[in-house]
């Protein structure tokens, strides 16, 4: 299935602005950053969470803990996939009890990844709240899940793909919409 | 490679370095789960497994059960006097019955070499060899490699000396195949009567004198000495064996400072290894046990996590 | 009984050094004539053997028919059918039955049962009572009742004294002793040949010396006994071949046989089959070095005969873990095709059809002292006809034997028996057995 570029919906500047705005919203919503911790979902949620951490530290002058969550072992589609996803290590080196955990991911789509992330987080401790920050919300939810902080709402069709590129992994910051090529 | 394209884990001789690497990498992620307060992930929820132990085992059985439970599967262990083996039922019948119960995986420990192959041929579900006679004990080999990798950061170009009854040891065979595939050098030491015939086939060096072998070793692994080998006339007494081949403090003093001392357990303290060495600072014998759970979780995930290609 | 004329085949009769296209006339159960262009008398059934090989009936001098005692594995009737299907007109059945054939009554039982069988079954008596290895059985009385040889096969005669006495005694009554050479202490719980493969598979090894030490002893005892005839069953190692070669050069009265599985397989088969119990046999499948030595011995005359050591086992008995399975390969229905296939493959230079016939008919008849193994006019009409070009795949499900244990299942072979004639009667034609009336 060939995919062709349809549109670029965010560039480097757009991503930066969106993340900065989310940082401010997190502070506003939690009345500061006391007891706020960030957890990035592998793979692209991790660098995004790292950037949010930098913005929050810059604004608040504090040091917000950052964890990494690998949700592979919590997926609900493991028995349906031909190829198994590679398992990576979860690294949340702090106590989650009574914390306000902001889960960070790149794209919110069906909600299944977030469902798995919630299960994984709850196995690690009992947070006061769990909030969700995503760079892009593309709709088409299959579960009753919504994001607390959204960089950009991008209406898409199911046949399209949202392709998030981040400097730390892909060498550039850009969000593209790709569509299936009609032949 | 993302997954193991095989139904069964029967031995390391037939596995590639790539497959072993995948298992060891996955095991590293699994170890993090074992260190959590809530040691459970839902990955294998609803999968049932049976552990058939036709030979007594505490460590391996407990390790498999923990791994299965940490992955949220439902294991049943059968062994010893409760097994139908003692009632004269054939292995084939036992397993056919179990298969009808819709089991997803069988883990088997059996005193006869090749039993795991036999079982795997007769059932459609995955078979994990938890030790077959004198043939192989692949998960032990993997957990030993995982432990070494963890402590040394690599396996390539390490010198691993395995001391003792190589001839009758499935642990030795699995380690010999696995370590060499991963680029380590393996030297075996012990009395000639406890070496397998045509040792060259394994590609290892033989050192009759343990001192010659351990001087520049990175890892020294002692094997359990079965007392019945003495009755078989393969060496005169345990006392003489300990004197010639036991890992004593004096002997280990000649080794490198950062040498790792390993033993698959259960140990005969004072025979193949002295307590000072087993409990000493270079010993990673207890780490081996933790590694065992992580490696077995990795294998369960890799064998059962995905669908099999039809 | 019908008169038969076998026309146009290549007739090979090593007993007379005959190898030419010829016709063969069988009358009243006897060979009447072997000549070119024989005319068929009225009422003769003519068998077109053009392009086929006509041989004196093949003799498998080492089979286990399990009768009496374990008839669920095989019996004299089914074993004889398997023999006929495999191109054998006669077999010699070992004594390790239940009860053991250590008494004239059991020998008589075998002979009575064999009267209704489609191939000739010659009983071999036990050398010692109940195969116990201590007291000599009634060799002369069993011989008088029809035992063609004496053997504790399946078990070695551990005591040197017993073997020496038996050889001496047998010499006095011109009886043949067949020895199963195995030192039980060196054998000790062994499963397969001791070597690289046993080491890798973690199976207890059976060293070559387990056979050779005992063979060397028996050759010495034979010399000391100053008489007697000794035949060595299922020779499997290079060392044994060398011992026999020397003994024969010294003029010792010893003969030997090799089994097709030892000639064609090595211990690698155990590994390649993933521990298949159908590769478990005693003596075990040996190394390639041993296998080559067996062929050399066969070609230079050190090994006189090819015998299947047909050891039928029930499927359930073999369908277990390797250590728990009994030793043995059922070979009656594969031996000739395997040998013909080996011949047509050209893998063994110097292997010829006349040599095969010598090893599978002439020599066994001579060793056992049977009135067989020849197409000399006036001899009983035991004839095997084979087609060396016929290809088929070994499928034990189609066997006449009650057992299916073979490591050769699925093998494509070129060469098969097409007719077996026993005493002038067609026992097998194109794989179909004609029952006795």
Model description:
The complex is a heterotrimer of chains A (about 180), B (about 300) and C (about 425). In chain A, about 30% of the residues lie in helices and about 30% in strands. By secondary structure, chain A is of the alpha/beta class. Chain A has one domain (about 1-75, about 85-180): Rossmann fold, CATH 3.40.50. In chain A, helix 1 crosses helix 2 (about 45-60). With about 300 residues, chain B is of the alpha/beta class. Chain B starts with 16 loop residues before the first helix and ends in a 6-residue tail after the last helix. The mean pLDDT of chain B is about 90. Chain C is an alpha/beta fold and about 425 residues long. Chain C is built from 14 helices and 19 strands. Chain C has helices at about 75-85, 105-115, 140-145, 160-170, 185, 195-200, 210-225, 240-250, 260-265, 270, 290-300, 315-320, 335-345, 355-370; strands at about 5-15, 20-25, 30-35, 45-50, 55, 60-65, 90-95, 120-125, 150, 175-180, 190-195, 205, 230, 255-260, 305, 385-395, 410-420, 425-430, 430-435. The N and C termini of chain C lie close together (about 10 Å). Chains in contact: A-B, B-C.
Blueprint (SSEs and pairs):
The complex is a heterotrimer of chains A (about 180), B (about 300) and C (about 425).
Chain A: E1 3-10, H1 12-29, E2 36-41, H2 45-60, E3 66-69, E4 100-108, H3 112-124, E5 129-137, E6 149-153, E7 161-165, H4 167-170, E8 174-180
Parallel strand pairs in A: 2-3, 2-4, 4-5, 5-6
Antiparallel strand pairs in A: 1-8, 7-8
Helix pairs in contact in A: 1-2
Chain B: H1 17-34, E1 48-53, H2 59-70, E2 74-79, H3 91-100, E3 105-110, H4 115-122, E4 126-132, H5 138-152, E5 159-163, H6 170-181, E6 185-189, E7 205-207, H7 210-214, E8 219-222, H8 228-231, H9 238-245, H10 249-252, E9 260-262, H11 275-278, H12 285-304
Parallel strand pairs in B: 1-2, 1-3, 3-4, 5-6, 5-8, 6-7, 8-9
Chain C: E1 4-13, E2 18-27, E3 30-35, E4 45-48, E5 53-56, E6 58-63, H1 76-85, E7 88-93, H2 104-114, E8 120-125, H3 139-145, E9 149-151, H4 160-172, E10 176-179, H5 184-187, E11 192-193, H6 196-201, E12 205-206, H7 208-225, E13 229-232, H8 238-249, E14 254-258, H9 260-264, H10 268-272, H11 288-299, E15 305-306, H12 315-318, H13 335-345, H14 353-368, E16 383-393, E17 412-422, E18 425-429, E19 432-433
Parallel strand pairs in C: 1-4, 1-5, 6-7, 7-8, 8-9, 9-10, 10-13, 11-12, 13-14, 14-15
Antiparallel strand pairs in C: 1-2, 2-3, 5-16, 16-17, 17-18, 18-19
